[in-house]
Amino acid sequence: MIARIITDRQETITLNQLMEQIKESPFLKECGALFSFEGIVRGKERTKNTTKLILTTFSPGKTEKELKKIMGEVQEKYELKEIGVVHYLGQFQPGDSLFLAVVAGSHRHETMAALEELIERVKFELEFKKEEESSAGTNIIMSGG
Is the pLDDT of residue 90 over 70? Predict the structure, then answer.
């Protein structure tokens, strides 16, 4: 399991790097599916254009601990062989990466379901605060937005 909360780009891990780390797992031989997801800052919507996003959490250490708990539950539920998540905090522009996830499992259906659950749970259960600056003004979105 690879779980990282990275603040202010103190370190940069790309989706390809995370995928390669997962592929180094001794359990990869038991896998038939490897799925990845990269969440990026959306810049254009129907009613606004986002120019900047600031993503924070009250306690990065606590958030990382909660992330590991979610990951462990998803890994156990879907019998994943390996799982990795990197979530960035700080200031971002449209197109910047915010969230990376890679899951490896025996079969594609449950592995894809695991990735979907992981994405949704991280979005809705972790305590993030998003501050979006856009053509419509500044909007603050708490967890689940």
Answer: yes
- Taking residues 117-137, what's their average pLDDT? 93
Q: What is the pTM of this model?
A: 0.92
pLDDT digits (tens, 9 = 90+) for 69-86: 999 999 999 999 999 999
- For the chain, the domain total comes to 1
The CATH number of the domain where 58 resides is what? 3.90.1170.40
Q: Which of 9, 16, 8, 18 is nearest to 86 (CA)?
A: 18
Q: If we measure between CA atoms, which residue out of 130, 144, 16 comes closest to residue 84?
A: 16
Type of residue at 6: I
Among residues 40, 142, 141, 137, the alpha carbon closest in space to that of 93 is found at 40
* Spatial contact of 132 and 41, defined as CB atoms under 8 Å apart: no
For residue 144, the model assigns a pLDDT of 60
- The one-letter amino acid code at 140 reads I
Domain hosting residue 96, numbered range? 2-142
List pLDDT tens digits, range 29-74. Answer: 999 999 999 999 999 988 889 999 999 999 999 999 999 999 999 9
Distance (Å, whole) CA 62 – CA 8: 17
